[in-house]
Every structure is written in structure tokens, then in C-alpha cells.
Automatic annotation (TrEMBL):
DNA bind region: 124-218
Keywords on record: DNA-binding, Phosphoprotein, Transcription, Transcription regulation, Two-component regulatory system
Name of the protein described by the UniProt record: Response regulator
Domain Response regulatory: 2-116
GO biological process, one term: regulation of DNA-templated transcription
Keyword Transcription regulation (UniProt): yes
Species lineage: Bacteria, Pseudomonadati, Pseudomonadota, Alphaproteobacteria, Hyphomicrobiales
All copies of domain OmpR/PhoB-type, residue ranges: 124-218
Modified residues (4-aspartylphosphate): D51
InterPro entries, sorted: CheY-like_superfamily (IPR011006), OmpR/PhoB-type_DNA-bd (IPR001867), Sig_transdc_resp-reg_receiver (IPR001789), WalR-like (IPR039420), WH-like_DNA-bd_sf (IPR036388)
An example Gene Ontology CC term for this record: cytosol
Length: 223
């Protein structure tokens, strides 16, 4: 899954970016508010982490412009501002959660996982499809209780489809969530990756809808 990180403090931006990448996310990072607004307005993200004190365009202005334009990806706000009135203004402007600085990376990651799950209508950190379980906390996937070894990119593909189970995900959207905006996207990269994943998982997990994309169908959980 691809995350937009907008933070002007170099040290925090680099630390958060490393923590996100270690957690399996693809990260596009920006230090300038106007550049961050443009990326959020033109690219597809699973979520954004947004600092309020950005140069160029304040974080609240960025958030308000995204929401006014119908950009509804979840947003976790980071800020050194700690008053309750500023937190209320951030949430009323469309933020999904609020994390004051300084913070622990573990808490930031937990809050990010939660807002992504909630955006997909899921409350449990373990997502199940039949006897397949995806543990978003530990980035592990198992089939009938047996762990399956996946590369980071394979995990991102399966996780995105399972978090969006029941919905056809277009190939372009999948491609955008698997690679950073700074990488050239090859036209058949998703097809090759899906083929690789199908050799590791039950063949019926990922269904191709020709001309539309890929879907993980809802299935009864094994008892």
C-alpha cells in the first residue's frame, strides 16, 4: 500500500519513512505543503500522514483542499501543536486521527493501520477470507494456520486486495499502490506479480475480471 508522508522536519520525515518502509508500505514523501497537496490531489494513496506546520501551504489548508475536491483517503495528522481546539479543528477539517509530537513509531504505525482498516469498513486487525488469514500487525499471511512466505511486494498486493475484499480493484490502482510515484511502472508488472502470488496461495483467492481488474471475493470463514 502506498502512503503519502508530508513532513518538513528532515529527521522526522526520514525516521517515519524508514519505519513505514520497514512495515511494508510504499512511501512518497514531501516537505512542502503545496507539493504534498498536488500529490494527494493527483495520485492514489491508501492513507496520508500530514504534518500541520508545512511550508508553502499549511497542513490544514492542504487537508481542506483534498476534502473539498472529494479526496477521501484517510489522513493521520501529526503536529507539535497540542491544544484541544487545534485537534478539534483538524478532525473537523477531515482528519481521521491525530497524533501529537513527540510520538512512538509503534503508536504511529498502529494508528495508521487502524485508519486504513476503518476506511475499508474493517475493525479487526486480522482479515479473513475463508481459511486465509492476513495479520496486518505482523504482516503475516497464513492458510489454514500455516504461514506463507511472501516478498514485501507480494504481501502488499495480497494485503491491498484483502483489505478491499468484495471490490474489483483496477490494475492501474494496484500498480499505484505497489510502487512509489518516483518509479516507472511497467505495464505487465501487476500481471506477473499476481501470477507469482497465485502459485503460493489457493488458486481461487484472486479472481481476474477481464477488462476491469482483480477481486478477492468474500468467503465463509472455515469452522
Amino acid at each position: 500500500m502506498r502512503i503519502l508522508l508530508a513532513e518538513d522536519d528532515d529527521r522526522i520525515r526520514q525516521d517515519v519513512s524508514r519505519a513505514l518502509e520497514a512495515a511494508g508500505y510504499v512511501v512518497d514523501s514531501e516537505a512542502n505543503g503545496e507539493e504534498a497537496w498536488f500529490l494527494g490531489d493527483t495520485e492514489t494513496y491508501a492513507a496520508a500522514i500530514l504534518d500541520l506546520g508545512l511550508p508553502g501551504m499549511d497542513g490544514l489548508a492542504v487537508l481542506k483542499r483534498w476534502r473539498a475536491a472529494g479526496r477521501d483517503f484517510p489522513v493521520l495528522v501529526l503536529t507539535a501543536r497540542g491544544t484541544w481546539s487545534e485537534r478539534v479543528e483538524g478532525i473537523d477539517s477531515g482528519a481521521d486521527d491525530y497524533l501529537p509530537k513527540p510520538f512512538r513509531m509503534e503508536e504511529m504505525l498502529a494508528r495508521l493501520r487502524a485508519i486504513i482498516r476503518r476506511s475499508g469498513g474493517l475493525a479487526n486487525p486480522v482479515v479473513s477470507v475463508g481459511d486465509i488469514e492476513l495479520d496486518t500487525r505482523q504482516m503475516r499471511l497464513s492458510v489454514a494456520g500455516v504461514p506463507v512466505s511472501l516478498s514485501p511486494q507480494e504481501y502488499r498486493l495480497v494485503a491491498y486486495l484483502m483489505l478491499n475484499k468484495g471490490r474489483v480493484v483496477p490494475q492501474q490502482e494496484l500498480s499505484e499502490h505497489l510502487q512509489s510515484v518516483h518509479f516507472e511502472r511497467e505495464s505487465n508488472a501487476v500481471e506477473v506479480l499476481v501470477g507469482r502470488v497465485r502459485r503460493k496461495l489457493p488458486a481461487n483467492l484472486i479472481t481476474t475480471r477481464r477488462g476491469f481488474g482483480y477481486i478477492v471475493e468474500e468467503q465463509e470463514t472455515a469452522t
